[in-house]
Amino acid sequence: APEAWLALHIAYVYHQPVRDGKLRSPTERREDLQAALGYLEQAQKLAPGLVESYNLAGAIYLELDDVDRAAHSYYASLEREPSQPNLLVAVAELEHGRGDSEAAISLIDRAAEEGASDALYILARRYFEDWDLWRSREVLNRYFAAPASSLTRPEAIALQASLNRRLTGISSSLVVLLLL
Questions:
Q1: Are 73 and 57 in contact (CB under 8 A)?
Q2: Which long-range contacts link 84-88 to residues 24+ away (Cβ below 8 Å)?
Q3: What are the E-state strand segments in 20-178?
Q4: In sequence order, what are the beta bridge partners of 19?
Q5: 6-48 pLDDT, tens per residue?
Q6: Do 126 and 142 touch, CB atoms closer than 8 A?
Q7: If phi over 0 gives left and psi between -120 and 50 gives alpha, with beta otherwise, what is residue 57?
Q8: N or C terminus: fewer CB in 10 A for the chain?
Q9: Residue 5 confidence class, pLDDT cut points 50, 70, 90
């Protein structure tokens, strides 16, 4: 529906922090974000399948520090279009921030299956942090086998070095234990 696209684009305008070359004050910014949410609600009523409206609403709710509504908007988007690897990564980070590691890892796994190389890095980092080093190495190898267009490549190289040091330390400790 053309009206839905128009409402979405008006919401994008209200989402911009600068108007007429000036940064909006915090009060003006909050009013603009509320106006954008009104237009997004209109777009969602007119075209419930317009996932961009849910994604933008989620981003706005995050900016307004309403994590629960942000999650609701993001999940509504994923219900309509499950194949959004970047959104899956964002929702995984949101769930991790809310303390739901199980949901976060499940979402990261889905994003990785969808081909998001950043998701593979994030998953490898999570396994590393949980001391599941062999799984971390396996996922990191999948990351490096994927096309190299990721912004996390330097971090992944650093993670690989830390992982190798940790695995080498464990191997050395095992040798010493076996020799005793």
A1: yes
A2: 84/51, 84/55, 84/114, 85/110, 85/111, 85/114, 85/115, 85/116, 85/119, 86/111, 86/116, 86/118, 87/55, 88/114, 88/116, 88/119
A3: 22-23
A4: 22
A5: 999 999 999 999 988 999 999 999 999 999 999 999 999 999 9
A6: no
A7: alpha
A8: C
A9: very high
